[in-house]
Amino acid sequence: MDFKQLVDIGEKWCSGTPFDLIAAEESDERRLDFYAEPGLSFYVLCPDLNNGADNFHVWSESEDCLPFLQLAQDYISSCGKKTLLEILDKVFKSFRPLLGLPDVDDDAFEDYQADMEEEEPEADHQQMGVSQQ
């Protein structure tokens, strides 16, 4: 994909999040840098099919941000090609707690949680393999 198109996707994604695209460098790494208050920053290295790179890479130079990028990094390394928009959405989901936003779970998990809350608690909870005598 043309780098200009990737920049456009990044800018459009920023319009719906607290992040800003603060730099876009095509010359060396095809790198997009993003920043949001309170000091959250990360960058995405975009693949260049002409040079044999076929996967995105997400990283941060901030030690505080790195653990939160694990979800996006795992997603990138899983099977199948990923789009920039899909990756940015995973990063945003990962950073929601740091941004002071409620954590958003998958719909299936929310449905599961709702089902679990509706069930009556059992009076006798017995641990497996341990008798209560």
The count of DSSP E runs of length 2 or more, i.e. the number of strands, is: 4
The largest β sheet comes out as: 4 strands, antiparallel
- Would you identify the regions where 5 or more consecutive residues have pLDDT less than 50? 107-113
Strand order of the largest sheet: 1-2-3-4
Mean pLDDT: 81
Secondary structure: helix percent: 25-40%
| Elements, N to C (H/E) | HEEEEHHH
Taken as a percent bin, the fraction of beta residues is 15-25%
Distance between the termini: 67 Å
Assign an overall shape: globular
Structural class by SSE content: alpha+beta
What's the helix count?
Answer: 4
Rg, Cα atoms, Å = 20 Å
Describe what you observe in this structure:
The protein has helices spanning 3-14, 70-77, 84-95, 107-118; strands at 20-25, 31-36, 40-45, 57-59. The chain has 133 residues and is α+β, with helices and mostly antiparallel strands. It is globular, with a radius of gyration of 20 Å. The protein starts with a helix and ends in a 15-residue tail after the last helix.
What descriptors fit this protein?
133 residues; alpha+beta
Write the layout of secondary structure elements.
Blueprint (H helix, E strand, L loop, with lengths): L2 H12 L5 E6 L5 E6 L3 E6 L11 E3 L10 H8 L6 H12 L11 H12 L15
Antiparallel strand pairs: 1-2, 2-3, 3-4
Helix pairs in contact: 1-3, 2-3
Short description:
33% of the residues lie in helices and 16% in strands.
